[in-house]
Amino acid sequence: QQVRKTAVKQSAPSRVPPATVKIRKKVNWLNREGYFGKQFVDEDALEMLGTLPEDRAMSVLENLEEKAEYGEIWNPNSYVVKAVIRHSQQLNAEPQWSPSSPARSGPPAALPVLKKVNWLNREGFFGEAEIDEDAVEMLGGLPIDRAMSILENIEGKAGAGEIWNPNSYIVKAVVRHSQNLKQASEPWPAKGGKKGGGAGAWAVAVKPQSGGKRGKGYGK
Fold this sequence. Notes:
8 helices
């Protein structure tokens, strides 16, 4: 089975640090070896891993590999999202806003957010896919207006056929909003430093799925 490389498109300024070379190599290897069948660790999950220290991100991938060997992994991206949320909670144990704050110890998603999610799922905006509990949990960590803005945007994109995996979209959006909120609440002196890695640094080995277009890199 051939493996092709897909570079992540440079989208709006993400401010999320890119995953290190070591993490990218591990992800490429797992995808190339077919640990997840037709599934693969996608660019969104890789972006989430980039928010963790390298040792924690590698720990997530080692655990993922072990569970996949025992046939315990159906969706590697969902596993990565949950693991990153858990590690982020531990790293941000002190009171500080972070995208992981919604998980269990934090506030649940507001009623308008839950209603919107239920409506989108019920109306079949994403085909057989649905917004899952992990994505709702992440939305719960955002102010209501920002969470609703994400859901309005995903509705519009799904209506235009641009969304294959709503949970991947929500993960990226919550990370982006969380970074913006952190910067607003913790004003730092302007530094010239990095503006994110180039698109070339984000190459991920992707197994093509039968069945045509995947759209914008979102795995089904």
